[in-house]
Design brief:
This protein is α+β, with helices and mostly antiparallel strands and about 190 residues long. It is built from three helices and nine strands; from the N terminus they run E-H-H-E-E-E-E-H-E-E-E-E. Helix 1 packs across helix 2.
């Protein structure tokens, strides 16, 4: 599913990303603890791109995005249970860290296609229930000894985004994460 943001949606996401970046800066969070190298991202880039990806996924799923700040790990990115992970190209994997919450959560992988001079666009690759993300077979450091281990789930292991929401319910169906993947219920 490809999603394009309007200018005002991108502007809102950029403001949220800036607020998140300054919040992390004030709290002296270490942006390099997961193996990012100095200069790999600009000060705001990672936070702005992450916020825009969350906004795009919410738009694609027809859900409200609150753009919260200072809620990392205490609440989901979208709604009650959706966590968004963005990557820069389609060859990347869904990343879940050992300290990420998984119970009742759904992790969505989205490719950030936003390039200089183009409209902000995103490709939602798929999703996986959080409980299925932390399997030993996905554990990796991607061959970088300077990077702490995480879980990297290949895109071919993800469920289609079309399976996440019940189309017959006009996008209002909710994935019941207590059932095997692909089983959906409506509220």
């Amino acid at each position: 599913m490809k999603i394009e943001l309007e200018w005002y949606e991108a502007e809102m996401a950029a403001k949220v990303g800036m607020a998140r970046a300054f919040s992390s800066f004030r709290a002296k969070h270490d942006a390099h603890k997961y193996g990012l190298k100095e200069g790999e991202f600009g000060f705001f880039e990672m936070d702005i791109r992450g916020a825009a990806a969350e906004c795009a996924v919410a738009k694609g799923l027809g859900l409200y995005w609150d753009g919260s700040v200072d809620t990392f790990h205490s609440k989901a990115d979208i709604g009650d249970n959706i966590e968004v992970r963005s990557v820069k190209d389609t060859q990347r994997q869904l990343l879940v860290r050992p300290n990420d919450p998984v119970e009742g959560r759904i992790y969505v992988l989205v490719v950030d296609l936003w390039r200089m001079g183009s409209n902000p666009s995103y490709l939602i690759q798929g999703w996986l229930p959080g409980e299925q993300c932390k399997q030993e077979k996905y554990s990796t450091d991607f061959g970088r000894k300077d990077r702490p281990p995480c879980y990297g789930i290949p895109t071919h292991e993800l469920y289609s985004i079309d399976d996440l929401w019940c189309k017959s319910c006009d996008g209002m169906g909710v994935m019941d994460t207590t059932q095997p993947a692909g089983k959906q219920v409506t509220e």
